[in-house]
Design brief:
Strand content: under 5%
Number of strands: 0
Oligomer: single chain
Shape: globular
Largest sheet: none
Structural class: mainly alpha
Helix content: 55-70%
Number of helices: 6
Length: 101
């Protein structure tokens, strides 16, 4: 079951966007901008589909007629970042510097 799920997932990623491309480091200017501005919140006055389009556009995730594919990439990207050793180490270092609330 796991291997068939992996094949389905990789097929979706190959057809609708490469997660490795989405995981690439952003230009410094973009990272600086994101550190200064507030991303749109879910409380934004728009339809859910429009909100999905906005968030996916910011993250450079392709938007398809069927947003399920875009959302699949969004959540796959989130999962990859959350499980990334690089970001886990950054979170651990940040946790050592700041006391938990």
């Amino acid at each position: 079951a796991v291997s068939s799920q992996s094949k389905r997932s990789s097929g979706i990623n190959a057809e609708y966007g490469d997660i490795d491309v989405l995981m690439q480091e952003w230009p410094t200017e973009m990272e600086d901008l994101l550190s200064r501005i507030k991303l749109p919140s879910a409380e934004m006055d728009c339809e859910l589909g429009e909100y999905v389009d906005i968030i996916c556009s910011i993250l450079d995730i392709p938007i398809y007629q069927n947003r399920i594919h875009s959302l699949h990439l969004l959540f796959t990207l989130f999962s990859e970042f959350k499980n990334s050793q690089h970001f886990q180490k950054m979170n651990q270092l940040a946790g050592e510097e700041e006391p938990e609330r």
